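To illustrate the input format used throughout this study, we show a single complete record. The first block contains the structure-token representation of the backbone; no residue identities are included at this stage. The design step must infer an amino acid for every position from geometry alone.
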């Protein structure tokens, strides 16, 4: 590997791995999905969803709805930490012109690592120069290294080169080893960070428990006729669909990154990490897909917190050539098998409790007696749950609400799994069962329209009608499901196909 350096970098600022104390002035805001229950004595929500009972002192300290909780002492600090760890609250990102929470990470303490092979990086390097960021470009065996050499020299970036391709994981690790700053950002060569992208990410690292934070990935519209690799911006059905439903875009709401939750992973297209937390080998070089999910799962197992911050935005050149797009979806699906083998139970196709699984199966039978029995099972489950909600003023009312929410989530997961993870099995049943055909049609339409409704306004630059969206969404699911089953067959495992129950103690941490 050859190395061309442009200026020294020094690694220094950091925190103790066991230090989880929030600094004074740190602000958190309740998640918009959090719900008060039992006349304000408990909060429902989080990642994974849970019910958190509040003491009288905690209810006194919490500010009115819409106002942030500001850490001003031990009580505020403990409550803010509890809410953050439960996913019931999120840090308030720094605003331009405001003072930082404490002396800590700055842009000067960040090195950007760019893995690249046979692609230009001029556009990305220009954006980084705008922000005054040091960069390490890792050429992973490009056929013609001259353009990258010229671009790195012009931008004052460090250039590393692998004589033969080793894969993006190995390229990122090489850049990480060359960076001597305490924080390292990984940006793929096909992204462009928007102005102001870095401060909201750095603000999260004022929390010493956070080892990784990721921005929101949005669609880049390059304009013109697209690039040499089949990029077409926001044009065409696939381009418009990707603008609102890309698997890289995790949405407009902040979240903790927790396995088996709403934001269970973040893509390696754009990440900021605390170098001391990820170690010298952040990404497994043996993985050529899902290496970012593997990193998230390892950090979670090590007890480190991770955050998704949509106030920071990085634009990505999505693949929108239909064939390339569908192959990429299938490629993503192949990553589930190695992940399931490395991290048992961490990436199931759906997570359901025994009683919600029983209700879903009974409803799939589409018989009156089975539907009545499903109602009985739901009522019994709610009653049993109410007996465990000691200390609440209205345990039955709260339990009924929890049961309905749990069942609704299980039904949504079942509809999605039927048309995504398990569509090959559903397809086998179609010729032989009218009920199977009805279930697949209802699930395919209902899940697709519901998904369109939730995502239709994610990008104001585009409009995708329900029919076109439904078509693209079903093709998306067919691609992922095909890759999932191919990966499972190739590794001779059923691990990524097995549903799981509610999380273990470690997953509820």
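Output of the design step:
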């Amino acid at each position: 590997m050859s190395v061309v350096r442009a200026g020294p970098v020094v690694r220094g600022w950091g925190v103790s791995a066991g230090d989880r104390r929030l600094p004074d002035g740190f602000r958190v805001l309740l998640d918009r999905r959090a719900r008060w229950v039992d006349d304000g004595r408990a909060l429902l929500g989080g990642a994974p969803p849970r019910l958190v009972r509040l003491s009288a002192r905690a209810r006194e300290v919490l500010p009115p709805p819409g106002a942030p909780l500001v850490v001003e002492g031990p009580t505020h600090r403990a409550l803010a930490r509890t809410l953050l760890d439960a996913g019931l609250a999120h840090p308030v990102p720094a605003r331009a012109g405001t003072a930082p929470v404490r002396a800590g990470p700055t842009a000067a303490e960040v090195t950007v690592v760019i893995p690249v092979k046979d692609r230009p990086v001029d556009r990305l390097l220009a954006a980084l120069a705008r922000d005054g960021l040091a960069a390490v470009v890792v050429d992973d065996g490009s056929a013609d290294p001259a353009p990258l050499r010229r671009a790195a020299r012009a931008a004052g970036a460090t250039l590393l080169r692998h004589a033969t391709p080793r894969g993006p994981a190995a390229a990122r690790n090489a850049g990480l080893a060359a960076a001597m700053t305490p924080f390292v950002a990984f940006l793929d060569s096909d992204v462009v960070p928007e102005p102001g992208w870095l401060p909201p990410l750095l603000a999260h690292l004022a929390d010493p428990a956070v080892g990784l934070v990721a921005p929101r990935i949005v669609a880049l519209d390059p304009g013109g006729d697209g690039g040499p690799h089949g990029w077409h911006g926001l044009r065409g059905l696939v381009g418009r669909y990707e603008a609102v439903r890309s698997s890289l875009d995790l949405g407009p709401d902040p979240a903790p990154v927790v396995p088996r939750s709403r934001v269970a992973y973040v893509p390696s297209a754009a990440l900021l990490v605390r170098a001391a937390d990820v170690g010298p080998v952040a990404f497994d070089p043996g993985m050529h897909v899902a290496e970012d999910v593997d990193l998230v799962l390892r950090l979670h197992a090590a007890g480190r917190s991770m955050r998704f911050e949509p106030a920071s935005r990085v634009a990505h050149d999505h693949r929108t050539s239909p064939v390339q797009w569908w192959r990429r979806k299938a490629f993503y699906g192949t990553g589930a098998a190695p992940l399931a083998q490395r991290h048992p139970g961490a990436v199931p196709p759906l997570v359901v409790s025994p009683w919600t699984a029983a209700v879903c199966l009974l409803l799939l039978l589409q018989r009156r007696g089975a539907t009545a029995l499903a109602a009985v099972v739901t009522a019994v489950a709610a009653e049993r749950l109410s007996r465990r909600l000691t200390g609440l003023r209205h345990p039955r009312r709260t339990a009924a609400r929890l049961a309905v929410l749990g069942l609704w989530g299980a039904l949504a997961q079942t509809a999605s799994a039927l048309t995504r993870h398990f569509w090959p099995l559903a397809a086998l049943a179609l010729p032989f069962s009218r009920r199977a055909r009805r279930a697949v049609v209802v699930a395919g339409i209902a899940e697709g329209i519901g998904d369109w409704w939730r995502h239709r306004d994610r990008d104001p630059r585009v409009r995708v009608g329900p029919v076109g969206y439904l078509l693209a969404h079903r093709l998306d699911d067919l691609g992922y499901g095909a890759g999932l089953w191919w990966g499972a067959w190739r590794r001779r495992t059923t691990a990524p196909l097995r549903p799981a129950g509610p999380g273990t103690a470690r997953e509820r941490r």
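Structural context for interpreting the output: The first helix runs from residue 56 to 61. The chain is about 40% helix and 15% strand.
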